[in-house]
């Protein structure tokens, strides 16, 4: 079972490798990936350095090219694929069908992973991508229950990778327009959800407010934990309830430590840690805990239990310091 | 440019659905999509009921397309989807790539619905090579985007449909927001979304209408109304203007097109103008 960790920069990449990552994933410094934030990601030179470091450590490096090319600007995405092939990364993580086609036809030996942004949740979708583009692996959207992951694992034509820890996207990824609905920019079209330039925090009287492109998505007392400034974690009222509440999801992070044995039994090949936008300290902390957990499990699967100090360490770096099993657990749904 | 009626996105009682399509049969609308696209737990109508309605509409001279679920998670849903694709009479609207796979395998023509990620001409050409006859432009894209894509698709072998009127489907989740709000679990939801025939309105703490909860689907609070853009769409070569129904009034609106101009209320038309989707104009 591979531990796959995020790298927003070289510092994160190094701590991930030192703390026990089996593989790292990263993106280029432009809108070809869905974490296109200022100060984050890799130039071609830094990518070459990252690839060298990773391969010297005997680990794997995956390049994320998971946004959708804009008409007339496709070259930027094609160049990213060419660069990845020249650099010799171990796999590409992609969602757009035309990019999968480009990579598969030009670089048939370069492994392809289907990004979560492709929103592939079922045997039909996986069969199509396997048949047409020979993908090796799918990153499953965070909408499947553990039972559904297990069922899919019995019939899938490709390896399964799941999100194990990190910020919880509650919609079928790659098909969520909530960010562009409020800001004009979505992960698919602009490379990020709730882009920073549209986020404004302000204190008004005894309250703190979160505004996204001027829309008030949350408001609370100054001592309360505020969620990430995304539409799905806001507090709203309805026509039948005037008390504002988290109608979609409250500030919380995904943590599947307790599911590790089940994920292993479902032959999940890779556990993904979310958070290319997070600090090296986060990457180090999370990688270290998950390395311990996976090693503990592999050492004696039958004896595995989640250790309290792991959960505590992870809660500290979690949104709202609260964690959930998300859609893996049917009652969450 | 002709008019189409998209699938009913809400959970309505069976009688209301039947009444709706009986009225559609009497209308001038040439193209009708029907079927459950949001949640497999909604069982007011079975697939056989939709097939019967489709036959009735076909007999009334309509082109009929069977719409399928946007989010296919359980194996039972995939098996049901297979049955729908292989119905032997009607083409389908694929709202998940899984449906495209099934149609392609069977050599059955299909339409790509708004929740298929068709973001560029190269992707659309690939879909066309697999049997796509028409695509509905993804909601978050614009007139500028469409103009460029249609240039890149020349000579064009597929039809284009634009979601022109109705509440916009923005996202789908594993979680049922309606059931959760009403204190129910998804597995024992009592199909409570039937209580909200146009979804449940969500407002910000400043009373700005923001969203509509429709089971696992999240919609725009206001509707999109691009009726005043019909001339531009026609000039671009758009084949169908889609009205997404929210009541019987949607049929009357479809009958009035293309004469109907936009309503006087400002509606959320941002996407078409390359602005945030909720921008009112």
Q: What name goes with the CATH superfamily of the largest domain in chain A?
A: Phosphoenolpyruvate-binding domains
Number of domains of chain B: 1
- Classify the secondary structure makeup of chain A into a structural class: alpha/beta
Strand order of the largest sheet of chain A: 1-2-3-4-5-6-7-14
Q: Give the N-terminus to C-terminus distance of chain B in angstroms.
A: 23 Å
**Biggest sheet descriptor of chain B:** 8 strands, parallel, barrel
- Count of distinct structural domains of chain A: 2
Radius of gyration of chain A: 20 Å
Please report the number of helical segments of chain B.
Answer: 9
Main beta sheet of chain A, described? 8 strands, parallel, barrel
Query: Any low-confidence stretches of chain B, pLDDT <50, length ≥5?
Result: none
Name the beta content range of chain B.
Answer: 15-25%
> Quick one: CATH superfamily of chain B?
Aldolase class I
CATH architecture of the largest domain in chain A: Alpha-Beta Barrel
Number of helices of chain A: 11
Shape of chain A: globular
Strand elements of chain B, count: 11
The radius of gyration of chain B is: 18 Å
Sequence-ordered SSE layout with sheet pairings:
The complex is a heterodimer of chains A (333) and B (281).
Chain A lengths: L1 E5 L3 H10 L3 E5 L16 H13 L3 E6 L8 H14 L3 E4 L2 H10 L5 E3 L8 H11 L3 E3 L6 H10 L3 E9 L10 H6 L3 H4 L8 E6 L2 E6 L2 E7 L14 E3 L2 E5 L7 E3 L4 H6 L2 E6 L6 H20 L8 H9 L6 E2 L9
Parallel strand pairs in A: 1-2, 1-14, 2-3, 3-4, 4-5, 5-6, 6-7, 7-14, 13-15
Antiparallel strand pairs in A: 7-13, 8-9, 9-10, 11-12
Helix pairs in contact in A: 1-2, 1-10
Chain B lengths: L1 E4 L8 H13 L4 E4 L12 H13 L3 E5 L7 H11 L5 E4 L2 H10 L3 E3 L8 H9 L2 E5 L6 H10 L6 E14 L4 H5 L18 E4 L5 E6 L2 E9 L4 H7 L3 E4 L5 H8 L25
Parallel strand pairs in B: 1-2, 1-11, 2-3, 3-4, 4-5, 5-6, 6-7, 7-11
Antiparallel strand pairs in B: 7-10, 8-9, 9-10
């Amino acid at each position: 079972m591979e531990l796959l960790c995020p790298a927003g920069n070289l510092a994160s990449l190094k701590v991930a490798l030192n703390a026990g990552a089996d593989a790292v994933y990263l993106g280029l410094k432009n809108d070809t990936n869905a974490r296109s934030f200022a100060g984050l990601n890799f130039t071609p030179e830094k990518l070459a350095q990252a690839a060298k470091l990773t391969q010297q450590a005997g680990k794997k490096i995956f390049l994320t090219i998971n946004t959708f090319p804009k008409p007339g600007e496709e070259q930027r995405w094609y160049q990213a694929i060419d660069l990845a092939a020249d650099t010799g990364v171990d796999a590409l993580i992609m969602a757009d069908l035309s990019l999968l086609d480009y990579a598969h036809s030009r670089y048939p030996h370069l492994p392809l992973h289907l990004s979560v942004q492709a929103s592939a949740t079922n045997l039909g979708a996986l069969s199509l991508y396997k048949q047409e583009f020979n993908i090796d692996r799918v990153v499953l959207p965070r909408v499947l229950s553990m039972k559904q992951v297990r069922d899919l694992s019995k019939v899938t034509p490709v390896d399964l990778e799941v999100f194990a820890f990190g910020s919880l996207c509650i919609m079928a990824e790659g098909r969520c327009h909530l960010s562009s609905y409020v800001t004009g920019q979505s992960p698919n079209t602009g490379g990020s959800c709730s882009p920073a330039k549209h986020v404004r925090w302000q204190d008004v009287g005894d309250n703190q407010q979160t505004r996204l492109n001027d829309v008030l998505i949350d408001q609370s007392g100054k001592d309360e934990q505020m969620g990430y400034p995304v539409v799905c974690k806001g507090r709203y009222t309805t026509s039948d309830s005037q008390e504002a509440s988290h109608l979609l999801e409250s500030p919380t992070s995904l943590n599947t430590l307790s599911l590790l044995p089940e994920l292993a039994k479902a032959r999940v090949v890779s556990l993904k840690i979310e958070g290319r936008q997070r600090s090296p300290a986060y990457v180090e902390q999370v990688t270290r805990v998950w390395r311990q957990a996976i090693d503990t499990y592999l050492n004696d699967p039958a004896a595995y239990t989640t250790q309290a100090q792991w959960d505590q360490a992870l809660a500290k770096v979690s949104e709202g310091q609260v964690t959930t099993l998300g859609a893996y657990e049917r009652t969450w749904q | 440019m002709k008019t189409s009626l998209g699938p009913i996105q809400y959970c309505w009682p069976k009688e209301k659905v039947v009444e709706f399509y009986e009225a559609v049969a009497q209308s001038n609308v040439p193209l009708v999509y029907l079927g459950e696209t949001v949640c497999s737990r909604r069982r007011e109508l079975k697939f056989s009921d939709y097939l019967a309605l489709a036959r009735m509409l076909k007999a009334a001279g309509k082109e009929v397309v069977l719409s399928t679920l946007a989010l296919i998670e359980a194996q039972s849903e995939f098996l049901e989807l297979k049955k729908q694709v292989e119905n032997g009479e009607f083409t389908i609207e694929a709202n998940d790539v899984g449906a495209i796979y099934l149609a392609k395998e069977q050599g059955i023509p299909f339409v790509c619905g708004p929740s298929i990620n068709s973001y560029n001409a190269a992707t659309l050409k690939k879909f066309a090579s697999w049997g796509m006859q028409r695509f509905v432009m993804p909601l978050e894209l614009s007139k500028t985007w469409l103009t460029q894509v249609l240039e890149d698709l020349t000579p064009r072998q597929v039809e284009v449909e634009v979601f022109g009127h109705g509440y916009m489907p923005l996202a789908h989740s594993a979680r049922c927001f309606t059931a959760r709000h009403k204190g129910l679990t998804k597995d024992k939801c009592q199909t409570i979304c039937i209580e909200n025939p146009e979804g449940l309105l969500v407002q910000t703490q400043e009373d700005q209408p923001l969203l509509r909860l429709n089971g696992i689907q999240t919609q725009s609070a206001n509707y999109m109304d691009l009726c005043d853009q019909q001339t531009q769409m026609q000039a671009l070569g758009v084949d169908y203007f889609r009205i997404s129904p929210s009541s019987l009034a949607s049929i009357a609106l479809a009958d009035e097109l293309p004469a109907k101009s936009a309503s006087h209320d400002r509606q959320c038309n941002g996407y078409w103008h390359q602005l945030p989707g909720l921008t009112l104009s």
